[in-house]
TrEMBL record:
It comes from the Bacteria. The keyword Transmembrane applies. Its main location: membrane. It is found in: Membrane. Keywords: Membrane, Transmembrane, Transmembrane helix. The keyword Membrane applies. This is Energy-coupling factor transporter transmembrane protein EcfT. The chain crosses the membrane at residues 27-54, 66-85, 121-138, 247-267. GO terms for cellular component: plasma membrane. PANTHER family: ABC TRANSPORTER PERMEASE (PTHR33514:SF1), PROTEIN ABCI12, CHLOROPLASTIC (PTHR33514). It holds the Pfam family CbiQ. It is a multi-pass membrane protein.
Amino acid sequence: MKIKLFSYNQLDTFVHKLSGLTKLVCFLLLTTTVMLTYDIRIILAILIFSYFLMNKAQIKFKQVKTMFIYVGIFLITNFILTFLFSPTYGCEIYGTKHVLFPIFGRYEVTLEQLFYQCTKFLKYLSVIPLGMIFFLTTNPSEFASSLNHIKVNYKVCTSLSLTLRYFPDVQRDYHTISLAQQARGLEMSSKAKLINRIKNVVTILTPLIFTTMDRIELITNAMELRGFGKGKKRSWYSFKPLQTKDWISMFICLLIFLFMLYIRIFVNKSMFYNPFI
């Protein structure tokens, strides 16, 4: 089955069977764990765990390779810019300096800088799969109903549900408009110059924006005609109650988060793991 980016697909996997609330809590706990530490040991563990979950959710690399390409370009650019603007930041953090080889002026490659930038690289790389798992395995309606059952206002829940549903619609419209423009002679392949491709993308975005505005107006009118927002409560068709596997999953993620706090406060006594001391 071909999975589109940001599009939910119902599969018979352990991850898909979890409640939307469970996946949100686990996502927030794991991403917060990664963001609050620069301990490469913890980050690597979560990186391996996140790709393990992707495999369990039957999300193949070829199905999300476009996202990985964009993320890879961003990470490489960030890696280079970090070195250009702060070539010795790693040395300042770890308090030591092991020069591998000089380049020119203040630019020299140090072991500390490489270690810091690799840790930062892995931080981003470990969070991306978690986001993909959440988007690709969470039913928007079920997710909204789960939030509503923990007393989140149903208007907010419905807005989140519509937002999650809207991503694949925009992606499909962009693809349709792109094919229509290419049929009229618009060049979008690598044969065209970069500046021309940017201009061509703008010609696609213009009708996409108008299509988006039309859909928003259509949905708004439909909700008003059905009296949305008049009552204090609403019923949900796709509510999924929390089960034992949901509580166990959240407990495991909470343990990972608490373990990170313990390592940061009592072992490293800093958010950075220093292997140079």
